[in-house]
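Notes to self, 3914_t:CDS:1:
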Amino acid sequence: MHFGATTTQRVEGAHSAMKHAIKTSGNLTKAFNSLDRWLRLHHEENSLQYENESISIDPLLAQEDKDRLEPLLGKVSQFALNKIKNELLSTTAYKACFFSDEQQKTALLNKLDDILAVPEVKLSDIKVPEKIVGKGRPSGTKRLPTALEHQSSKILLNYRIPANDIDQIYNPLNDGNCGFCALAFAIRGNEENWDLIKLAMNNQLSKRMEVYKDWLGYNTDSLKWILEFRASPCQPSQWFVSPDCAQLAASTFAVPIAIFDEKNEQSMLFFPLETPPVHRKTSIILHFINGNHIVYVGMKSYAKINWPAVNVQHIPLCRKYGIEDHWSKLFA
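result:
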């Protein structure tokens, strides 16, 4: 009960976000794992936001103002410039020893106003859209098939996946980033966070470069190039690849990832390399379609899946680093 009281404390917003991350009132272990995953990705979001603010310049600024801000690139954000302006407004000539007179302070404020001001746009310069898009689904488009309809759709799944136990099939945008989008939907419930998925995987790769380069034999230069590319669409050379991206994702998010394809030619199961399965997590299934697209397949909780073979490098790697292989026992 709140008795009509309203609070704007930041802790209330954080509490609401945590409750949304946990989603359901399950056991303590499930709640802990959900909260741990949310905190890790929230940290990556803050890191990405900091990077964007420190390197971005308002596109509405004039070119001469952009040139003037170039020395501050990567050092001062838009928020900082506004903060400087507010501090100057509240500072008198007597308090600010670095001002020789009030005129110098006024001149600096005027320069900040010029930098931060949004250019005036005349209504006559605004182009009216030639076509107004109405409400509802655009004509000629179809919704994603449900689990019961997937057999009649064009998506052909691997025979190891029981059709009656499928909960959903999520088909992300076909722009070349589909593998990372499908992974983002499986982890965060929203494919638009695919860039954060890449950021987290790139950080994991940098921390464990020796494992992926020297022992697993991955082309880490190519892998970093894939993970650092954040545009859409992308070229085939920048797609989600297996086993490189699949193994790295399993270790980054501490969850088993199963890769399937229609002909079972590259189907493989990947376990986290460093995180032991204190309690078994729900595995993520990514399915290749025609070799050039990836969808996410969500299964019901009671589904019994005929898992593909485990990555052949998993057991040798565990032996090399003295890691007890608990994951293989769970999926035996």
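- The chain has a mean pLDDT of 77.
- The longest helix spans residues 28-55.
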